[in-house]
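Anyone able to model this chain together with zinc ion?
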Amino acid sequence: MSKVFSKVILCEYLLSMERGDGQIKKNQMILVDENKIHSVGPVPQTLPEGKEIIRLNNHLVCPGLINTHTHLPMVLFRGLGDHLTLQRWLEEIIFPLEKKMVNPEFIRVGTELALLELIKNGITTVCDMYFHTPVMAGLFESYGLRGVLAVDMLSSFSDWKKDLDDLCDTYKESQRVHPAIACHAPYTCDADLLKLSAEESQKRNLPISIHVAETEWEISEIKKQYGKTPVAHLKDCGVIGPHSIFVHCVYLNEEDMDLMAETNTPLSYNPESNMKLGSGVAPILRAMEKGITVSMGTDGAASNNDLNLFTEMDTGAKLQKLKNPSKTVKAKDIFSMVTTSAAKALGLSDSIGKIQAGFFADIIALNLNHPHLYPRHDLLNHLVYSASGREVDFVMCHGKVLMKDAEIQGVDVFRIYAEAEMIKEKIKETV
Ligand SMILES: [Zn+2]
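re: yes, here you go
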């Protein structure tokens, strides 16, 4: 008897990123076996048997996008303090609100709202840094998305050790929920806490995520305290290397970049957040020339104000052109920041970021029937510079269909919108 595949996906256009060259092939078939991709190749004369045949005519199929830095529940602070720069925004709005509002219920509603937004925008994996991480992990499990979920060592809301133990025990065997450690920043975590997080990371073999060199204020503050740059300080504390994801990196000097390159420390470029908080423009092209793995993140929605990697790619690419007028920025390099390089940054490059045999079936499709996607001179350029996320109408993660015909499957979205509005009322009462 011939094999029956879980899903047979027929793609008019496929950008698999298999060889990382941004090549788009026509009339391809993806065979999905449970949660993994069995094979990818041209559509044969006779189709193999499948429990479900998914025909994606007039669609561009590509790997599910990977967001390497965010704080999902902060969607509930979207639209607050939008006029402020980073230090005032944190100290006057975010930190006081978090103190009053953050509890498991807030985290649940915020995470559910954020997960809807991620699915709508074709993001199947995120690296998150926030509080009450076990609550978030449970929602990743039930919604079917993939998460590297970092427990904040600085949290006054819950016991980081207990949360980390919980996550490591519960998700030891999970292929979708990966525990991690978060240190907020070198200016909020003292040297002892940074050293402790490096020890925990080593002991438990977990990645660390940390905001680094985000503003000029941070550079001068760390110089005042330790007489060195944030990157050099982190190196002395042991927080550096392939398992340490350095977020923002707006103010890096040549030595910082050499240090990151030598130690294979990946970078998460968050251009929209850096623009909105008036922080600056990260030296991304120089970092790439040095051989640093550059991925992309949205940061929390309160400083962006959305969780959308399509607009992030567009903005991030244009900003680099503005910063480096004589250099070229290729769409394939920008797209790799949300696929292959992002997978590498998270230590998952052998399982996600490409549509390839043996990889997890994280697959999205964009409907090409939109005026802004014609004529089709170059679909990869359209993906980076013209698409906005609203074209995504099919999302699969780990072999499970999460969105079909632009409808999120099995979730009452209006229940979540109503709950978000109720939290808004509570926030209004506190400010
Ligand atoms: Zn952040």
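The mean pLDDT is 96.
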